[in-house]
Amino acid sequence: MELITFTAGRTSTPHLGGLVDGAPRTICNTVAQGLVVVAAAGGRLCQSCERGAAVLRSHVLRPEVRLLATARSTKAVGHYLIEGTSGAYCGVTVGEGTPAGDRACKVCEALRVKVAEFDLAWTSSLFGYDVEADAPYDCDACEWVGRYAQGTAPARQEWAAHEETCPASAADVEQQLVVEDVVATWREEWLTEGQQTIEGLLDEQGALFV
After folding, report:
1. Are strands 136-138 and 79-80 parallel, antiparallel or unpaired?
2. What is d(CA 93, CA 128) in angstroms, rounded to the nearest whole number?
3. Distance CA 105, CA 79 (A)
């Protein structure tokens, strides 16, 4: 699914999002009025939307928690790492250290919630009915829980790695993956077709463009 660029005016900061029930919805959930679809922005985007898009594309549901790169104590608050970068959900640069406690940055948590809410609303709109929130794979035979949304390539990779260490029999673990993956694959195919339909509608409705 491709994200759409919105703006409230020619001089305003562009946002990223999608159409939910026919109306613009941004990842940051801005309250700006008069949002219209524009061509992909070449300049600076809303930073929350940009970081949120990176989180959305990573399919990470349980992010790694890291300390600031300059942190001098493990007692400091932790920040959610954006997969494949050294940046956190809140925009700060993090290092390799992990916090000793369970305190998380409130700004990081707020963006995590906004991304999850946007993803659920956007997906439900494409399906035409309410869908359940994404969940990671979890193993019935042990306490292992994955980090990525079911049905995605990273989720399959981490599941394959788990199979090698899971105390359950290989047949039991494989059967669980097949049952969960059928639903996830069908959902991805449906969303792909739905996105194509939405793009077709946008092309016909020139009023949505500026």
Report:
1. unpaired
2. 39
3. 5
Nearest Cα to 17, choosing from 9, 190, 1? 1
195 C-beta neighbours (distance < 10 Å), count: 15
Produce one character per residue of 42-79: b if its CB has 16 or more CB atoms within 10 Å, e if not: eeebbebbbbbbbbbebbbbebebbbbeebeeeebbbb
pLDDT at residue 210 in the model: 30
Q: How far is CA 135 from CA 57, 60, 102, 103, 146, in A?
A: 15, 10, 21, 23, 9
pLDDT per position as a tens digit, 3-21: 999 998 776 889 999 999 9
| DSSP-based helix, strand, coil % in the chain, nearest 5 | 40, 20, 40
> Residue 127 in contact with residue 194, Cβ under 8 Å?
yes
CB neighbour list of residue 91: distance below 8 Å, 6 or more residues apart: 47, 51, 107
Percent of the chain whose pLDDT exceeds 70: 78
Q: Which helix H or strand E contains 109, and what residues bound it?
A: helix 106-127
